[in-house]
Amino acid sequence: MRALMKHTGTVLLLLGVSLGLAAQQSKPIQDLKVPDQKQVYLIQPGDQLDIKFFYNSELNEQVTVRPDGGISLQLVNDIPAAGLTPEQLTHSLVQIYGKELRNPEVAVIVRSFSSQKVFVDGEVSRPGVVNLTGRTTLLQVISEAGGLKETARSSQVLIIRRNPENRPVTLTWDVKKLTDRSHPGEDIELMPYDVIFVPRSPIANVNRWMDQYIRKNIPITFGYLTSVF
């Protein structure tokens, strides 16, 4: 009996610690939120670009961004394009052609896009790659990935993307609100090469911990421990 009480006390202590850790993990990730981030398109290898010169039409070209991210144009050497917004590439071309032309005015138009995709991982039924076809939102991509598992922490889904400076930033999105008719949330349009990660819920972590460290290690039946609790 003493041995049983000792085991029971150990279980209660460990369970309390686990629940405490889970409560800490469930706090909102405020420092990761990036409110009102402007969505911009970054040029990718395989994109087809129209380069138009308003006063020098003989320099107009239609080019495809090479796998190395560069493009080749008349009068100048190879120019990096991948990872830039169309506006950034336009500014770069104005600076470069300014050495050859007087007051050049240039427009960069993305005529066709390469195969665009996002990556989904975590507590979804089918983790992996989801191809984008036109405007695609977070809820649509989760649906394409088979939906959320019961163990998902749907209130804190992470979206990792590159900003215009090509640095990764992370946003948290409350997917639970998107399906709540009484308090609907706002869906978010995804960008090519976003990474969506759905974390485990705190209770799922506790259940997993219980299975790994209690059910498989305590030398008595778990049904009896449940009755003790």
Q: What is the rounded Rg?
A: 26 Å
Q: Proportion of β residues?
A: 15-25%
Termini, distance in Å? 16 Å
Question: Tell me about the biggest sheet?
Answer: 5 strands, mixed
* Helix content class: 25-40%
Based on the model shown, name its key terms.
229 residues; alpha+beta; wza like fold; Outer membrane lipoprotein wza fold like; 3 domains; 5-stranded mixed β-sheet; 3-stranded antiparallel β-sheet; 6 helices; 30% helix; elongated; disordered N terminus; disordered C terminus
Task: State the gist of this model.
The protein is α+β, with helices and mostly antiparallel strands and 229 residues long. The chain has 3 domains: 1-26 and 202-229; 48-112, wza like domain (wza like fold, 2-Layer Sandwich); 116-200, Outer membrane lipoprotein wza domain like (Outer membrane lipoprotein wza fold like).
Topology:
Layout: H1 2-25, E1 48-53, E2 61-64, E3 70-71, E4 79-80, H2 86-97, E5 106-112, E6 117-122, E7 128-131, H3 138-144, E8 157-162, E9 168-173, H4 175-178, E10 195-198, H5 202-215, H6 222-228
Parallel strand pairs: 6-10
Antiparallel strand pairs: 1-2, 1-5, 3-4, 6-7, 8-9, 8-10
Helix pairs in contact: 1-5
